[in-house]
Amino acid sequence: MGNPTGWKPSMEKDAKTTTAAHAEVGAGGATRGIVHEEPLLFERGSTGRSGVSLPAAGGDFDPARELPAALLRGGVEGMPEISELEVVRHFTRMSSWNHGIDTGFYPLGSCTMKYNPKSSEALARLPGFANVHPLAPAELAQGALELMYRLERALSEIAGFDQTTLAPAAGAQGELCGLMLIRAYHQAHGNPRKKVLIPDTAHGTNPASSALNGYEVVQLSSGADGRLHPETVKAAMDEDVAAIMITNPNTLGIFESHIAEIAEIVHAKGGLVYGDGANMNALLGVARPGDMGFDVMQYNLHKTFATPHGGGGPGSGPVGVKAELAPFLPLPAVVKEGERYRLVVDPKERPQTIGKLREFWGNFGMFVRAWALIREYGPEGVAQTGKLAVLNANYLRKLLQGAYNLPYETDSLHEVVFDDKLQKAHGVTTMDVAKRLIDHGFHPPTVYFPLVVSGALMIEPTETESKETLERFAAAMKAIAEEAQADPDAVKAAPTRPFRARLDETRAARKPILRWSPGMKVE
Amino acid sequence: MRYHPHTPEDVRAMLDAIGAESLDALFRSIPQRLRLSRPLDLPPAADEITLFSELRALSARNDTAHPPFVGAGCYAHHVPPVVDQLLLRGEFFTAYTPYQPEISQGTLQALFEWQTFVCLLTGMDVSNASMYDGATATAEAALMATRVTGRSKIVVSAAVHPEYRKVLATYLRSTGDEIATVPFGADGRTDLAALEKAVDGETAAVIVGYPSFLGVVDALPEAAAIAKRAGALTISVTAEAVALGLLQAPGALGADVAVGTFQSFGNPVSFGGPAPGFFALREQYLRQMPGRVCGATVDKHGRRGFVLTLSTREQHIRREKATSNICTNSGLCALAATIHLSLLGKKGLAELARLNYARGRMLKDALGRAGIAPVFSAPAFNEMAFDVGDAEAVVARLAKRGIAAGAPLGRWYPELPKAKGALLCVATELHTPELIELFAQSVKG
Amino acid sequence: MEIPDTLKYTREHEWARTKGTQVVIGITDFAQDHLGDVVFVELPDVGDTVKKGESFGVVESTKAVSELFAPVSGKVVEVNDPLGDTPETINDDPYEEGWMIVVEPSDPKELDALMDAKAYRAFVEEQE
Question: Residues of C numbered 39-58 whose beta carbons fall under 8 angstroms of chain B's beta carbons: which are they?
């Protein structure tokens, strides 16, 4: 029986709602705007409308005459029938219920929610990029291939690896890819080994990816300073251990400063060191995982290189490796032969490859955006990104210290983790603080993670936020801390401003309604 | 640097507040010997004008003047401008996964609508919030079938997309599950006698394309009946989802799980990614479904709203016991598909599907007049393999004219009797009758 | 925090109550409170065997999954099926209506190794 998060979901249906306990305008600029209710697409009653303009088919081809009747359908029942303007309003109204980076500060720890440059979007939409087919002959796709080649070189350089595969669809698939490479490497040395060591601060994807790749997970405890210690690794390390997975800086925002020694311990027993590159933003241009003993690491382009996450994805999870793992990399690889670029897709050219991880060549649209940002930054801009991300996190840490408990006082890099210890004395939890931040116009930090901190508030400001934004956020956090003492019920009633108040997640899980169907009722 | 708002005075003031001497001092926890002592070896910074001129030149080295006649799992369709315009609203575009439902209702309602569209088109009870792509959705479906049935053999038709089968093999290598591949017959449909033989009491799932990689409307109902008799699940795979506007829903033909991609709706081909993979299934398997799912609920005032739900299946809670390691999916691509499907509606989708069917038939007739016959006789949707004599030579020849002619099947099926000649070609609403005629003449040479 | 004197307890927060030769099993008030609103429970079937200290099912809130560990070994003779539809019973009444399974123990002496109410109370206080 366990619930390490310290988060106890409990829906209070009749919680007291307060209206006047906060200022009319939140520190992040939140007031009530023009917000509309909007039904589901499928709840609209009209028939015969459509929002598309299509050419006549031409010719006389009737599927009913040519295909077996049993395989045909009359039309998709339940589909909406809406004009173009109605569709535009539907989604425009819905968008107003969302908070994005473009709306306001988004300090979601470990997600690196930095500004998504508009020029990257325009560039990804150039017809030559958007409309090039993955199976177009190489001579019709030289631009795409060259871009992939250059991005591969740049990513290898930035993290200090010999080669990088662009194939993985997202960070978690990058992890899986890395573990497959590790398995293939050990297999080639005669024994795939059995276990993967993972510190207790790790993202949930680390153990999930290990298990998906058939490895047993051994959890390691981090020390009182929030770091993994060499003696812990030494005690767990044996020749059954395939690898250790380390996020550096870890999810507490703390640099694993024993990394080189840990890598030595693992390497001495023939194990490999996997780096979860989710927090790569902290190290840009300052230090390189490949120089610290990591053998393999995944990037998350939507974090470090500002590709949009669009409410859940897409991601892109390139994986960098040291030379000894390169023969096992998934297909395709992009090679340059003279002035021509070519995709290697035939396993005969890479006999030790782990194979294909996803269809085609990777999330190319994300490659264009990431490359555009790297080009715009240049070496100084990339390095400045890492430094300013760390400056911002440390500034917020300074501003918030005292108002919130800091469970680990070790130096922070790009993010800092507080908890709700001081507020809990007044019955106010991390979730309450998070919801109250919404009333101030800010997206809450990551909450209840990492699991080593009960009631964690994990704050990652990123480098694209200004000093004033950080100060406004800190002011809101402090106001909430004060309110938690003076009027805890007001905090607990939050949020009061957005389109919806606290939603009943318990109800959603007990009686799942996961799609519209005729007569749908939610009570 | 326009994305960095810090003035030198800001930096100084912030450092002073922190009590650090310099930016470098903030990194004292990184041992000096682990730090990079030189600038990164990257091209120098580019201003916006330089950046655009450079990337425009690069993009111009991709010849996309003509819509591609190659599909093979990635389909060029018309994307109405409405899709991009709405998609680019920063509130959608720059949001993360909707962890805070009160300020993510836009994303969440759109996901709920996506899940509904997937269910309507596939005839399934439940859909998740999207997958990376069709190939990984297929692999995850196979893994799910092994969990549901406790069995370890996956039987897959050779007519399922070769890339999907490769990904399936990659995913299953570490679990030790077995894959048996069943050939297709001369008509292009899965060989049912061979399927019957391959499916046994150890079979967790049968995987069939619908339409298949060969463009053929495969024998899904018959394959599902065989699977059912053996207690195995049937997984249907759809890469050209426009077909579902014309063809019977996989769920109505016996499929238990429907996977694939909705790239055809609202998403450009973009050199193969990103695209919204989908994953739909019968309700009884819900607890074994991978990925995120959005559900309806009420807020504390009783108003309807949406949340991510059933998350205990997922990696951030169940960790190594999760149903999958997937975290980020393809939410934005799913939103694009949802917007496009909303525009299409019932009437537009049916029209688009018939239009694609018609253009496929037009291609067949045009090539027929040029003396080029289809390789397979089974009914097709908008994509067919044609015997062009030497497929690689045709591809090379048409590439010189800026046309992506098709996918030579010999690359994936060297054992096929007509492997050398078979060229898989597609025609969609983007291929006008004139262009199709021109193409047929060019293929003839 | 309710901790009935008549029950035996595990370190994983299950309780066990003897009923004739059989043992009724559920989770404690502390456990349900710690989890928050229970939304799902997965229990074995009648006829299955459970082994002391090993998992016999799971209980979930929206944010946490907890395995259920058997306080004694034996054969499952009864399962509280209605919990499938009304998992909230576990929150509302963990010691009575919220019972989970009844086991015919293979070695009733295993019960003796469990904590009594006093020991469990001390254990919980230490956990807090």
Answer: 40
